[in-house]
Amino acid sequence: MTRGRFVAFEGGEGAGKSTQARLLVDALRARGLSVDLTREPGGTPGAEAIRALLLDPPGEGWGAEAEALLFAAARADHVARRIRPALERGEWVITDRFVDSSRAYQGGAGALGDEAITALHAIGSGGLRPDLTILLEAADEQVSERLRARDGDTSDAIGGRDAAYHRAVAEAFRRYAAEDPQGFAVIDASGTPDEVHARVLAALAPLLERA
Ligand code: TMP
User: Fold this and answer.
1) Which residue in 32, 50, 58, 95 has its CB near the most CB atoms, within 10 A?
2) Atom 12 (ligand 1): residue with closest C-alpha?
3) Three-state SS sequence of 78-143
4) Which atom in ligand 1 lies closest to the alpha carbon of residue 71?
């Protein structure tokens, strides 16, 4: 049995990652592939418990180091208990966010820097990388509109950070994608969900041909 394929959707808030992940899973299943759809932080009972701690922190909230360690801990459990076993069974795994979110949010926009996040990932998850990371890039106005529709006035501890933080997140994602053109596909997230889905499928064509 060949190892399955691992695809991560990444991007800032409201870029349409969850919608695109679902559309991709439907398309892959329609081709007869066995697919596991998951998300981060989360994807296992332990990692979902850590998600609740991260997005609705008790007390005065987490410091930058504790936050990065919690994301890495959630990911270690997710990789060990769900992602690696599914890949070893030959399934496709589609995740809504993975380590590049930690690199962009905690590493690039936060205080920690990319080396520290990459080191934590090596310790926690053996440095596992997706076969392809799909970075969805949306214009600011489109994002604000989608977020208003999705969240109303509520947003979590990280989504609710200021505009400068989210601009730094977007810049970091762009930088990582430019540094690794083989590993990333940068996709314009403007237009209808079906239009964006067609771009995602085109970016995945090389992986699908080898499946
Ligand atoms: P979600 O809104 O995509 O479910 O993600 C929850 C929040 O967690 C979102 O604001 C992005 C943030 N996040 C990080 O800061 N670092 C990470 O490693 C991950 C996976 C998410």
Assistant:
1) 95
2) 158
3) HHHHHHHHHHHCCCEEEEECCHHHHHHHHHHHCCCCHHHHHHHHHHHHCCCCCCEEEEEECCHHHH
4) 18
Look-up of token digits 């440095």: 127
* Tokens representing residue 136 in the block: 């969805």
Q: Is the CB of 41 under 6 A from ligand 1?
A: yes
Domains detected in the chain: 6-209 (3.40.50.300)
Centre of ligand 1 to C-alpha 101, Å, is: 6
pLDDT of residue 165: 94
Closest ligand 1 atom, residue 54 Cα? 8
The type of residue at 61 is G
Asked if the model's pLDDT at residue 158 lies above 90, the reply is yes
| Percent of the chain with pLDDT strictly greater than 90 | 86
Averaged pLDDT for residues 129-156: 82
Closest-CA residue, ligand 1 atom 10, reads 159
Chain segment 11-57, per-residue pLDDT in tens: 999 899 999 999 999 999 999 999 999 999 999 999 999 999 999 99
